[in-house]
Specification:
The chain is mainly beta. It has one domain. About 10% of the residues lie in helices and about 35% in strands. The strands form four sheets. Strands 5-6-7-8-14-13-12-11 form an eight-stranded antiparallel beta sheet, with no helix packed on it. The longest helix is centred in the N-terminal third of the chain and has 8 residues. It starts with a strand and ends with a strand.
C-alpha cells in the first residue's frame, strides 16, 4: 500500500541556497538543530506546527517518525520521537530516503538548514578538519563512517549524544544526530 506525502509550503521556512548547490549544516562544533528542530528538546507537536505532518510512520521509535523531502529531492529529513514524544533522532540523507512502500507525490517543504559548516557531499577530511578526531572511524569496502560521542559535552546523565557521518565514495551522504539513552 503506497502512502503519499502532501505538499506543504511555509513562508517562514526558506531553502538554504549555497553557491555549489550543496546543503549545509551549521555546525561549528556540532549543532543539534536543523529546520528549527532541536534533538532532545523539540517535541512532536512542535515539529508538526513548524514543518507540517510530513509522512508519518508509526512503527518508528516510541511515538513514530516523520519524513520531509527537499523540493529538489536532494535530501530527506527524518525525525524519530522517543518515549517523552521529544525528537531523539534527526537524520539527513542525500536524495529521497523513505521506508519501503512509501512514495512521495511531491516535495513537501524547503528544508531550512543553518549557515556554513558541514555539507552533504563533503569529504571525510573536511569533516575532521572542522570537528577534530572522531570517537570512531570505520571503513568497509570504500564506505566510511565517522562517529562522535557526547558531542555536546553533556553531563554524565545525558551522555547518550552522538553524531554519525556516513560517506560513500569519499562523499558525505548521511548525517545522524542522536540524543537518547
Amino acid at each position: 500500500m503506497n502512502k503519499f506525502i502532501f505538499v506543504l509550503s511555509f513562508v517562514a521556512i526558506a531553502q538554504c541556497a549555497l553557491p555549489d548547490s550543496a546543503y549545509s549544516l551549521g555546525w561549528g562544533g556540532i549543532s543539534d538543530t536543523c529546520s528549527g528542530i532541536t534533538v532532545g528538546r523539540t517535541d512532536d507537536k512542535e515539529v508538526v506546527a513548524r514543518l507540517g505532518g510530513g509522512l508519518f510512520v508509526g512503527k518508528e521509535g516510541a511515538f513514530g517518525g516523520r519524513y520531509y523531502i527537499a523540493p529538489d529531492g536532494a535530501m530527506t529529513l527524518h525525525l524519530v520521537t522517543g518515549t517523552d514524544a521529544v525528537v531523539w533522532e534527526l537524520t539527513l540523507t542525500r536524495g529521497i530516503a523513505l521506508p519501503s512502500g512509501c512514495k512521495p507525490v511531491k516535495a513537501i517543504l524547503p528544508i531550512n538548514l543553518l549557515e556554513a559548516g558541514i555539507r552533504l557531499g563533503d569529504s571525510p577530511q573536511r569533516v575532521t578538519a572542522l570537528l577534530g578526531k572522531p570517537s570512531k572511524d570505520k571503513s568497509v569496502k570504500g564506505n566510511r563512517t565517522l562517529e562522535f560521542y557526547n558531542y555536546r559535552n553533556a553531563p554524565a546523565d545525558e551522555a547518550g549524544n552522538s553524531a554519525t557521518f556516513s560517506f560513500i565514495n569519499g562523499r558525505l551522504v548521511k548525517v545522524r544526530l542522536y540524543c537518547g539513552d
